[in-house]
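Page 47, continued from p. 46.
Same chain as before, 338 aa.
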Amino acid sequence: MEQNIVFAEFALCAAVILVTGSKLSKHADVIADATGLGKSWVGLVMLATVTSLPELLTGISAVTLNDLPNLAVSGTLGSCMFNMLVIASLDLFSKHRPVSNMVQQGHQLSAGFGIVLLALAAIDILFGKYLPSIKQLNSIDPLSILFIIVYLVAMRLIYSYEKTRVQEYVEEVAVQEQTKKNPLRNAIIWFTVHSIFIVAASLYLPDLAERIAKMTGWGESFIGSSLIAITTSLPEITVSVAAARMGSFDMAVANLLGSNLFNVAILAVTDFFYVKAPLLRCVSHINTLSAITAIICMGIVVIGLTYRSEKKILYLAGDAAAIAFFFLLANILLFVAG
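Result:
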């Protein structure tokens, strides 16, 4: 009986996210056109921030309320890994051409910064114990401050790149007829409203996932990097799939890559709230597997964006199939090790 109630609550939260997520993408599309910021920038910042809030709230609650640093880190890094699987799955919505052939190559910039940040996180987990901590700031790890700096530099450089690209391709800037039908002010209002609904529904997902996890008795790292990662990534999945179905593949890819950047910044924020010790020094080394897998998958994204294959094998391109393979392999290893 209790299991039925938990799954019913989970289904209700998922339904709210599915409905509001599809509408969020539509309003973001209007904002991108009306402001001239470009679909990639709006996906990278606006959508990525909103859809990554569940990871932030889950991480903070895991370390402050439950003293579970391992669950916080494995959930966040697992979400990075899962976002790459979602990018691979976008090929299912792109008809005959691979997504890597349809989106602009500037996403390499986001993927590159993501690789840098995730590599720093993996180094911190393995070798952070040899570094000092900043006791004046709740024993925060100095690398956490570096995470924030790299994230801000990434946003600045990507913004500059996107503005240049938009100026070069005028047809991607503010479509006046679209703006007349969908005023910018209304788009911003409804974007905010649907964002609130997504965040509210997402707040319940981690607790429900944890209750389901306790019923199964699986390992903590596996639960964090799979079940909790998937549940907290549900907004990213919904918004990205909705954007892809609208044909806004640039926005979908930017949302997922941007979420990975934001997720590493989340580790820095969570570290500040974990007052016992630097966060990444208190977790299992197995979490580096999630970080390394996400790095490999983002490397594959860079390869795909550079090579730009024009063919798909059945429903997936070669790069998408490779991402799916490494995701599956990592989860098998996490399950066995956990």
